[in-house]
Amino acid sequence: DNSNKLILEIETLKKELNYKLENLRKEIFTYHSDIETIKKDFSHKKEQLMTTIKSLEEKNFKLKCSWQRLVAKLSNQEKVKKKEKHQNNIGISSSSNINFDQFYSSSKLLKTFNGHTGHVLSIDYSTFDDNQFLCSGSFDKTIRVWDIDTNKQIQSFNGHSSVHYVKFSPYHYHKYHQNVICSSSFDKIIRFWDIKHNRQLQVFNGHSDSVYVVDIYVLDLVIILFVYGILKHQNHYMFSMGTQAMSNVLIFHHYKEISTIVIKVIILV
């Protein structure tokens, strides 16, 4: 009797153990199924997230390009509107003027200058010692000088966080017979660069935001740097370069941002 009872108890325990093992296998299978479902859901969400990120990056790039084109367009419009551009070209030989009618009628590419790695926002043209030069400012943080006749880069300047506007300085050529470039930047600073010695000459601080445009006006022997066009605080400044202090002589306040300006002198008789 005891033996039969023991055998019965063993069989009962076996059944209970098998039952528990079967339930455990079912639970494990359920857990594996849940894990696979979570993996698939995570993979799908990751794919959606990557697609969203890629779409946002493309939109950001397009917006940046549109903004850069707008800035370049405003800069070009400022150049076109200057009616007295000859006043900025003191020291430049009149025989070196470009025949734009001939250029337009030819309808073909004359020169290509490669070297910048970012968008070129501004260029300026000048002649020194019977040679033709072009300077350019770019989002790649550099200012480059090109020899138009040889089609080669002869100088490069670094210092700005990005370069918005460049201009050859008639002041330095007229007074010191130096070949100098003036540049303005989103870093709030105006700089002057000596082309021959590859060095920075002067720095103008004063703006509290990006400097969009610079101009230099020459009146007899009085030479003034006129700086204007910041984004937020709507001020533009006039600096005198006639003294070593390069003092800020005038401040003009506006209620909206400044994109361009024309300097004129009217003589009343």
UniProtKB/TrEMBL annotation:
SMART domains: WD40 (SM00320). Keywords: Coiled coil, Membrane, Repeat, Transmembrane, Transmembrane helix, WD repeat. Residues 7-59 form a coiled coil. One of its GO terms (cellular component) is transferase complex. InterPro entries: WD40/YVTN_repeat-like_dom_sf, WD40_repeat_CS, WD40_repeat_dom_sf, WD40_rpt. The chain crosses the membrane at residues 211-231. Pfam families: WD40 (PF00400). It comes from the Eukaryota. SUPFAM superfamilies: WD40 repeat-like. WD repeats lie at residues 113-156. This is F-box and wd40 domain protein. It comes from Reticulomyxa filosa. The lineage of its organism: Eukaryota, Sar, Rhizaria, Retaria, Foraminifera.
